[in-house]
Design goal:
By secondary structure, the protein is α+β, with helices and mostly antiparallel strands. It has one domain (about 5-110). It contains 6 helices and 4 strands; from the N terminus they run E-H-E-H-E-E-H-H-H-H. The protein has helices at about 15-25, 40-45, 65-75, 80-85, 95-105, 110; strands spanning about 5-10, 30-35, 55, 60-65. Helix 3 (about 65-75) packs across helix 4 and helix 3 crosses helix 5. The longest helix has 14 residues, at about 95-105. The chain starts with 6 loop residues before the first strand and ends in a 12-residue tail after the last helix.
Length: about 120
């Protein structure tokens, strides 16, 4: 019996976040779930402030913010997975990872000028 692909939960109203989620999905096995699409069971697994960052839901764990990005990148079928795995070996990598994540997340409008995927219009 194969394991269910991890669910990558992201802000589907953000063009940069959508681009990042689709980038990961094209290079790995993920189920993409936008904030607007969360089921009650998925929502119950997330922290109260879940809209502050991305999350990766596996069958037995919830990764949030920088940790979610690190774990998602480590699962990609691309050379970038080695960077994520190498980051884990650095002293205080959690602090570096979370600061980096927050820097990008807080400036996603700027990053969205370089890479973005506009979500489909909702009815």
């Amino acid at each position: 019996m194969s394991e269910t692909p991890p669910r990558l939960v992201y802000d589907d109203d953000c063009g940069f976040c959508t681009w990042c989620a689709e980038y990961a999905d094209a290079r790995g096995e993920f189920e993409l779930v936008g904030f607007e699409e969360l089921s009650p069971d998925q929502l119950a697994r997330l922290p109260d402030d879940y809209e502050n960052c991305a999350h990766l839901l596996t069958e037995d764990r919830v990764y949030s913010c920088g940790e979610a990005l690190e774990e998602a990148v480590a699962r990609l079928e691309s050379p970038s997975k080695y960077a994520a795995r190498g980051l884990r070996r650095l002293p205080a990598h959690e602090r570096i990872r979370e600061r980096g994540y927050r820097l990008v997340a807080d400036n996603r409008v700027l990053f969205g000028k370089v890479a973005r995927r506009d979500p489909p219009a909702r009815q």
